[in-house]
Amino acid sequence: MVKYPWAEPAFGFDDDPKERADQLRPIHTSAVRHGAHGRANGPRPRPVIEASWQRVRKAGVRQGTPDPQINPDSVPEAFDGIQETHAIDAKALIDFITHAFAPALANSQLVGVLALEGSHVAMRFGSRSAIAHADSIGMVPGALWSETGVGTNAIGITALTGRPTQVHGPEHWCVDQHDWSCSAAPVRNPATGRPIAVLDVSGPVSQSHPAVLGLVQSVASQVELMMEVEHRRRLDALRVKVLPQFQHSGGPLILCDRNGWVLGAIGVEAPDKLDLNAVNDEAVHLVPGIGPASLTVNDDVVVVTPLEQAVNRAEYVLNPVTNELRFVDNNGESVFSLSPRHCAILLCLMHATRPLDVHDIAREVWRSAEVSPVTVRAEMSRLRKRFPHLVSEAPYRVLSTVHIG
To answer: Taking the domain 17-232, which CATH number applies?
Structure first.
């Protein structure tokens, strides 16, 4: 289950939602006339709203934009997509969300929304009157509720940023949504970490409250927990099926699914998950945390074989002219393209007579003591993630001999 950063509600728990909407109207009017920032000395929208207003203005979305584009075929296509890409049972997903939303939406004018790929509305939950109210602004199955489709709205912002969002009244860019308040949260597939949907609760400004944002986050977390339980069940089933086939292997090898979740390891220690997204198509794969390895894909299983002998007899050759790093061992040769910055960092570490800290590297590579240590650490993290057996943790040094060639 994903732990989200703190989500900012649109107004305080003790504030009157109608009064807050009235306070926001002149801010929206000013933004329409003078740009997303409004008047230089006037009140400004919240940063998340201001950023969205800037994006929709740049995209040419008018505040009087009519109802969204509607493509009914997008709904079955989106459900088929999550089934094929994420192995999520669409019916089980809908049933779970319906059950989770039911107590909160009963006897209210709030409508729950499930939006899938591309911010297309897939399902709605709530009373008949609430759903009829949603019809009035085009929040219907197949409707495109992205920022570029209907301007600033909670579904569109959350789909774009991956963060829970509440948009209240005139914080919406399009005026036909000014009587609405919307709260949305992303739903991520625990197996991949990628978002698969956005959950939203929308309704009249008068029925809005910061707690609605918490409600949506809670339901999203429940959905993710359901998917995580199913993911663990599938891993266990795959583990039972696959491990006996390799139990007599001397290793070293690691068995994982296509997302990198480890099923078992023989003759080598392995984490719970490998980052197979970082694996390239070279002859030798550099798996973060494992180092040089060969990969074999058998149906739903990936066999990762660490090349221990290759690590001991490996040779690295750096070409600072072409910014290329060659890795050569008994299994062949791989050539990796480096950014000029990473090439300069390796040269710096190669010529250093002692391990270097971020300040040393800033002076030698950036030629400045003023560069932020955070910037240097970020570059070192990216370099170490790509070549874990070449560069040490801080203080930094090269772990293998690197030749210039």
So the answer is: 3.30.450.40
